Structures are given as C-alpha cells and as structure tokens.
C-alpha cells in the first residue's frame, strides 16, 4: 500500500488552506521561489510539454507596471503582496519538445495546428499553475490566485514580442489569518460527482 500524507500535510495543502487577500510584511526569498518552481515542474503535463512560464513580480517598479492592468478590487491586495506570479503559457512550447520529450518526434504533433497548440498550452499551463500553488503551500507560503486583470494589457507590458500569454495571477507570501473571510461552502461528493 502506498503511504499517504499525514493529516497535518493534507490540512496545509487543502483542508485548512485558504485564498489570502491580506499579507504580512515578510519577504519571500528568491531561493524559495526557485524551490517552488522546482517542485511544480515535476508534476505531470501531457508529453512533458511544460508550457507554463512564470514572471515573479517583486519590486516596486515591477508592481507599478502591473498596477494599471489590475481590476479595482485586486489592486490593493496585489500591491501589498510580497510576490505576484504572472502565470502564463508559451504558445511555442512545442519547440522545446525535442529536449523535454526526446524519445519521439512530439514537436511534429503540434507544428501548424494552432488550435491544438492553444488548447494544449492553456490546459497544461493551467495545471502547472495549480501545481505551483500546491508547491507554494507545501513550502510554507500562502496563495491568492485571481483573474480580474487585463490579460492583453499584461501581455503587452510584460510579454511583448514573445509567444507567452498570461493566464492568471497568483499572489504569494505569508497571509494574515486575522483578515480571512469565512470559508465559502464546498459541495458534497454526490452534488457534483458520479461513478458509473
């Protein structure tokens, strides 16, 4: 039988984990950001395509560039977060497949098929963004993922003249538990699941 994680670990990753909107004034080190990525990259993507691209916004100058593209409700919490990860995906991810999936010509599966490229990049990049959040929680950080920003504006500001498109933002840091809202309801298994 495979060992399972302890209840403390499951609480940290899922049951007691919350989306944070308020942050303690504690820095997040570059070493920790690298460690989070090094965990997240190990989780599965189709054909090991690894389309996620991350831009960690940490400096006041970078935050000033991001601020105009945020919806009003996301500005203050994002400016207060130690780190905001712009989670994107590379529409030219397939160019890396000869290195990342070397045992077959996976690059040819995508060349010239824009719809397949877009679907694969978005789906697997979204998965990797979720892995990133779990990795951050596993290494002691809190997360605050969000939409509520101008994707085209962020892409023009941070990814101009590249094949990278933003997907979502995720604030990272040490959340202030005193400012959490009451947890919203979660559905029961029978509400949304079937076994056939």
Itemize the secondary structure elements and their pairings.
Blueprint: H1 7-15, H2 30-40, E1 52-57, H3 60-66, H4 72-80, E2 83-90, H5 97-100, H6 114-138, E3 142-146, H7 151-158, E4 164-173, H8 189-192
Helix pairs in contact: 2-6
How would you portray this structure in words?
The chain is of the alpha+beta class and 196 residues long. It has a single domain, classed as 3-Layer(aba) Sandwich (NADH Oxidase), CATH 3.40.109. Helix content is 39%, strand content 15%. The chain has 8 helices and 4 strands. It has helices at 7-15, 30-40, 60-66, 72-80, 97-100, 114-138, 151-158, 189-192, and strands at 52-57, 83-90, 142-146, 164-173. The chain has a 4-stranded antiparallel β-sheet with strand order 1-2-4-3, sandwiched between helices. Helix 2 packs across helix 6 (114-138). The chain is globular and about 50 Å long. The chain starts with 6 loop residues before the first helix and ends with a helix. The mean pLDDT is 97.
Describe the structure in brief:
The protein is of the alpha+beta class. Helix content is 39%, strand content 15%.
What distinguishing features does this structure have?
8 helices; alpha+beta; NADH Oxidase; four-stranded antiparallel sheet; single chain; 196 residues
């Amino acid at each position: 039988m495979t060992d399972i994680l302890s209840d403390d670990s499951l609480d940290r990753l899922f049951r007691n984990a919350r989306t944070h909107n308020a942050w303690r004034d504690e820095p997040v080190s570059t070493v920790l950001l690298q460690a989070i990525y090094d965990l997240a990259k190990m989780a599965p993507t189709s054909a090991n395509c690894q389309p996620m691209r991350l831009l960690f916004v940490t400096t006041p100058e970078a935050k000033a560039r991001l601020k105009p593209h945020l919806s009003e409700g996301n500005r203050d919490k994002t400016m207060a977060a130690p780190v905001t990860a712009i989670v994107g995906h590379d529409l030219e991810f397939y160019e890396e497949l000869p290195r990342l999936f070397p045992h077959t010509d996976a690059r040819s599966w995508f060349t010239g098929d824009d719809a397949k490229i877009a679907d694969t990049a978005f789906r697997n990049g979204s998965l990797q963004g979720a892995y990133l959040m779990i990795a951050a929680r596993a290494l002691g950080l809190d997360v605050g993922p969000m939409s509520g920003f101008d994707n085209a504006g962020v892409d023009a500001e941070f990814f101009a003249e590249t094949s990278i498109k933003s997907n979502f933002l995720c604030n990272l840091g040490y959340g202030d538990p005193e400012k959490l809202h009451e947890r919203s309801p979660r559905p029961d298994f029978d509400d949304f699941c079937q076994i056939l």
